[in-house]
Design a protein that fits this description.
This protein is 31% helix and 21% strand. The protein is built from 23 helices and 29 strands. Strands 6, 7, 8, 9, 10, 11, 12, 13, 14 and 15 form a ten-stranded mixed β-sheet that branches. Strand 19, helix 12 and strand 20 form a beta-alpha-beta unit. Helix 15 crosses helix 17 and helix 15 packs across helix 18. The longest helix has 27 residues. The chain is globular.
Length: 752
């Protein structure tokens, strides 16, 4: 805030930037001005909020303004300018100013307690109304078309306010004063089905699709094993875990082991899915073979109403609250449906009941997924509830667009010193996925009013995102996959000094055209140097080996001189007899991937020989770990190569069980990575180590490596604002592009 102090009777002009539109900020300013007896006005403008006040209490007003802001508001800056007094009378809220925008929309927020109280108050005009909201909660980003955030620029623009809603909207004393999504049963959106019918269908073992905040969701009762299995069959989701929704925090403790950080995330206004260690009292089909289950609390009024109705049906034993499978309603390989017509068409063969409503979703946003790693929040999927919150950069950068990778796609747009990472888009392996990707680019750049002058993309030449960038007409900057992983952590932590980077994932296109995935980099500014990697391992069958862990286990056996055991160990695999001959060919594909080592360990220990979704084998291997052990001399470091031959020599022994092997593998792998980083720190003099890549979604591995680094005198940094998986790539690409552009400003010449 500027240090301008008004003299008595002067007029001040204040400009407030940040997340200050659609959060009740103007009514807050109105009430604050009334408290100090000030005249003037407040309005949204393209930069945020503009305020003019005059009177004897202006200094007190300026001091109080940032201290009592609404719960969803985030103030980045307040500038104060003294201007001549007008002798004005009264204070008003003016119509928003139009123009090129530099403000932002806040993320969607879960229903607040005050609205919940009204929802179940029989005397309230909002009684049992599934679209109740106020300035402190409800839809924001998913219904916004453009800025400024006014009703006419949202999906609510077509709903004319009734007299009662108009009165609340215009009443400075109301919680819905200028709440742009205000609605009631008389004038607002309506459901296609009654709450009792929805609850009866769920309780009766049916699969129900409902239109949520950012897209359609599928619900069924976990008490019906048949319903869960039918949902798996219809959605073609053989093993991938489902999330569940519960009615209260107390219920969370009944189905999972929780800590304070996890409970706080569950109850936060973002209402993400939180991965918790299961107590194994839910149906096995919820999260087959896994130790953690995704849990969430109700997000929207409709969720609360469904749980209320389920509780009154009375078919459960006393004290047993409902637990409902809640999963995205996208059919396999398809984007999340948001349009009523397409939802009715695509979900007809999946859901027994499809519940629509007439408020449009303008931006699809899946549920966010988080876990607590090393005591703090870590994203698995960043979307509803968090997007479009920006990530503050260490300095202002040119307007850039980074288009991410091919899996778990996101895009990032920069504006000044802020990076806006999009919601999770998904995989770009279908025409529809690419279409959603392009829609997201258009919406994010349009909403932020940014015209990129540089576009950053992955080094891989065949990605759909790379092809999109190549046809954009922008100046292009290619960023290596693992460098982007490292740069994402560097960007969010504001690092400017050199850093080591330990990157562990499944696959990334290397600078040599090879398959990288277990890398130790030295990052300095816009450049990096590969100073180490895991020992290359054959990938029999190429990409097929990533879907069939037994193939990677076979490569380990061959490497250990025990290729003759492949056919016996994997006798159930039709091609096992022929794989040894394939492995004996020196021209086969190789990889330095850490993810493939996890696959190999899982297959050797009999945990998983094939996988139906990405990371399944590693997740099932992690599920068996309660404590870890380190195999002394379980690894070798030869120059720049880290080898786990001694560890795997123990894992292929006949006398080791799955649990012992999983705990030994995790402990030894983590200890080796710490040793590797510590040796490099001694050589380079760099003690900061950024940790990223999809393998760091493994809570055991991340915890162990972070603790080990601290014990070794290193400074470990994990990603906290974006996922460690490929969902964070676009942020890293944007930061590298910003650094390269600063070094070579001529790259911007001729672009617009």
């Amino acid at each position: 805030m500027s240090e301008a102090i008004a003299s008595a009777g002067t007029r001040l002009r204040l400009r407030v930037s940040g997340a200050v539109q659609g959060v009740g900020f103007r009514p807050y300013v109105y009430s604050l001005a009334a408290r100090y007896g000030l005249a003037g006005f407040v309005a949204n403008d393209p930069d945020g909020v503009i305020i003019e006040v005059e009177g004897d209490g202006t200094s007190e007003f300026v001091a109080a303004l940032p201290l009592e802001r609404p719960v969803l508001a985030c103030i980045d800056q307040i500038s104060v300018q003294e201007i001549g007094a007008f002798g004005a009378k009264g204070f008003s809220i003016r119509r928003s100013e139009q123009g090129r925008s530099s403000t932002r929309i806040v993320a969607d927020a879960a229903t607040c307690q005050q609205c919940l109280d009204e929802l179940f108050d029989a005397t309230s005009r909002y009684y049992l109304y599934p679209f109740i909201n106020c300035s402190h909660c409800g839809p924001r980003y998913t219904i916004a078309e453009q800025l400024p955030y006014d009703r006419r620029n949202t999906a609510m623009g077509r709903f004319a306010l009734c007299a009662a809603c108009a009165a609340e909207y215009a009443d400075p004393a109301s919680r819905r004063f200028h709440a742009e999504a205000i609605a009631c049963p008389t004038c607002g959106p309506r459901l296609s089905h009654g709450i009792d019918d929805i609850a009866a269908a769920i309780a009766g073992g049916q699969i129900v699709a409902i239109k949520g905040l950012g897209g359609y969701q599928l619900l069924c009762d976990t008490a019906s094993q048949d319903a869960v299995l039918r949902l798996r069959e219809r959605k073609q989701r053989d093993q991938k875990p489902f999330a569940v929704m519960i009615g209260s925090l107390e219920q969370a403790n009944k189905i999972a082991e929780t800590n304070a950080a996890e409970l706080a995330l569950l109850a936060s206004v973002a209402r993400p899915i939180v991965l918790l260690r299961s107590r194994n009292n839910l149906a096995a089909a919820i999260a087959p073979g896994l130790s953690r289950v995704g849990v969430m609390l109700p997000v929207i009024p409709l969720h609360h109403l469904i749980f209320h109705a389920l509780g009154s049906i009375g078919a459960r034993p006393k004290g047993h609250s409902p637990v409902v499978v809640t999963t995205s309603a996208n059919p396999r390989g398809k984007p999340l449906p948001i349009d009523n017509g397409k939802a009715l068409q695509r979900l007809a063969g999946i859901a027994d009941l499809i519940v629509t409503h007439d408020r449009d979703i303008l931006t699809r946003a899946d549920d966010s997924v988080v876990s607590v790693v090393a005591g703090r929040r870590q994203f698995i999927r960043r979307a509803r509830g968090y997007v479009p919150e920006p990530i503050r950069l260490a300095r202002s950068v040119p307007p850039l667009l980074a288009v991410g990778g091919a899996l778990k796609s996101t895009v990032t747009v920069t504006r000044g010193n802020e990076a806006f990472v999009s919601q999770h888009i998904g995989d770009l392996d279908t025409a529809e996925g690419i279409r959603v990707f392009e829609e997201t680019v258009r919406h994010l750049t349009s909403t932020l009013d940014v015209r990129p002058v540089v576009m950053a993309h992955d080094l891989h030449p065949d990605m759909a995102s790379t092809r999109f960038a190549e046809t954009s007409g922008c100046a292009l900057i290619a960023v290596q996959h693992h460098h982007a992983h490292a740069a994402a952590v560097i960007a969010e932590h504001g690092l400017t000094a050199p850093a080591l980077a330990l990157l562990l994932d499944g696959h990334g296109y290397g600078c040599d055209g090879g398959n990288w995935g277990g890398e130790l980099l030295l990052c300095e500014g816009a450049r990096f140097r590969r100073i180490g990697h895991l020992e290359p391992l054959q990938m029999p069958g190429g990409d097929r080996a990533a879907r069939e862990p037994w193939r990677m286990a076979s490569a380990i056996l061959q490497m250990q001189g025990r290729g003759h055991e492949i056919a016996r160990r994997f006798a159930s695999q039709p091609q096992a007899e022929h794989l040894r001959a394939l492995l004996e060919r020196p021209c086969g594909a190789t990889t330095t991937s850490a993810g493939r080592l996890f696959d190999a360990a899982a297959a050797l220990l009999g945990v998983a020989t094939s996988q139906s979704y990405e990371g399944e084998a590693a997740m099932k291997l992690e599920a068996g770990v309660r404590q870890t052990f380190v195999l002394e001399a379980g690894w070798m470091i030869d120059g720049d190569v880290l080898s786990f031959r001694p560890l795997f020599s123990r894992l292929i022994a006949d006398d080791i069980g799955a649990t012992e092997g999983a705990e030994l593998f995790h402990g030894t792998f983590a200890a080796a990575c710490v040793d590797w980083a510590a040796r490099s720190a001694q050589t380079t003099g760099v003690t900061t180590v950024v940790l990223s890549g999809g393998c760091f979604q493994n809570a055991v591995l991340a915890d162990e490596i972070e603790r080990g680094c601290l014990a070794a005198g290193l400074i470990p940094l994990l990603p906290r604002q974006v996922p460690p998986n490929d969902g964070g790539l676009s942020l890293g690409q944007a930061w590298i592009a910003a650094l390269q552009t600063a070094e070579q400003p001529q790259a911007l010449e001729g672009t617009a």
